[in-house]
Specification:
Blueprint (H helix, E strand, L loop, with lengths): L7 E5 L4 H12 L3 E6 L2 H13 L3 E6 L5 H15 L4 E4 L15 H28 L3 E6 L3 H4 L5 H21 L4 E7 L16 H4 L14 H8 L10 E3 L6
Parallel strand pairs: 1-2, 1-4, 2-3, 4-5, 5-6, 6-7
Length: 246
């Protein structure tokens, strides 16, 4: 018996890194997991691994910045598994690092679309399905840079700062529906894929050389903690794995 037996979880950005680890970790605890991502090949590999381990999962290709795709994917997962209990809005990234002066406005806008608007669309699509279950949980994936910033990462930092406030306002709006909304801040995570990842940016770790650089699997226990909280449990809170946050 797992902690999440009978629950349905949706995870965005589930094809790699933190998203893939959370999807596998929650499936191992009994949840049926809908895995969303743009990279279909990687996404199918994640689902195959979950099923091989005895878990339940489906892969749905979805661009989280596309409103219609998000609505369709969310409804499809709820229909497939009979509802929706928890949503982990993990998809995001920092595609291009540049100072404000040197930045390309298209890249800047895309980063906000991915990290902030994508979460807004995901939460909005999920709310009716969570409400239909009598309550649920929304978990957003934040960043320490959203609270302290870093030179050359303005779009990422601003988008994550906005995400933090969106988490708080959503929690205020949904508390009467027994839907909790909390922010999980992983801190530096080494996905093993080079400097695109937050963990590889000197601006993150150089401020605190003793910072814990994690593997994606190290984030799973906190995600499981949030996914297994009672419907009247913590909400509008920020849970961080960073040694120094804010």
């Amino acid at each position: 018996m797992g902690e999440l037996d009978g629950q349905v979880v949706l995870v965005t950005g589930a094809s790699r890194g933190i998203g893939a680890a959370i999807a596998a970790g929650l499936a191992a605890q009994g949840a049926a997991v809908g895995c969303l991502a743009r990279t279909e090949t990687d996404l199918k590999s994640v689902v195959e691994r979950i099923r091989a381990a005895g878990g339940k999962a489906i892969a749905v290709r979805c661009d989280v910045t596309d409103e219609a795709e998000v609505e369709t994917a969310t409804a499809g997962i709820a229909d497939k598994f009979g509802g929706l209990d928890t949503v982990v809005l993990n998809a995001g990234g920092d595609p291009v690092a540049a100072t404000v002066e040197e930045s390309d406005s298209r890249d800047w806008r895309h980063t906000l679309e991915l990290n902030l608007i994508g979460v807004y669309l995901g939460a909005r699509a999920a709310i009716p399905h969570l409400r239909a279950r009598g309550g649920g949980r929304i978990i957003t994936i934040g960043s320490g840079l959203g609270h302290r910033g870093a030179p050359g990462h303005s779009a990422y930092a601003v988008s994550k700062a906005g995400l933090s406030m969106l988490t708080r306002v959503l929690a205020q709006e949904l508390v009467e529906n027994r839907i909790s909304v909390n922010e999980l801040v992983p801190g530096p995570v080494d996905n093993g894929d080079g400097p695109k990842d937050e963990s590889a940016r000197p601006s993150v770790v150089s401020e605190n050389p003793s910072e814990w650089v994690k593997r994606p699997e190290d984030v799973v226990p906190l995600a499981l903690f949030l996914a297994s909280q009672p419907l009247v449990g913590p909400t509008a809170q920020r849970f961080s794995l960073m040694r120094r946050d804010g």
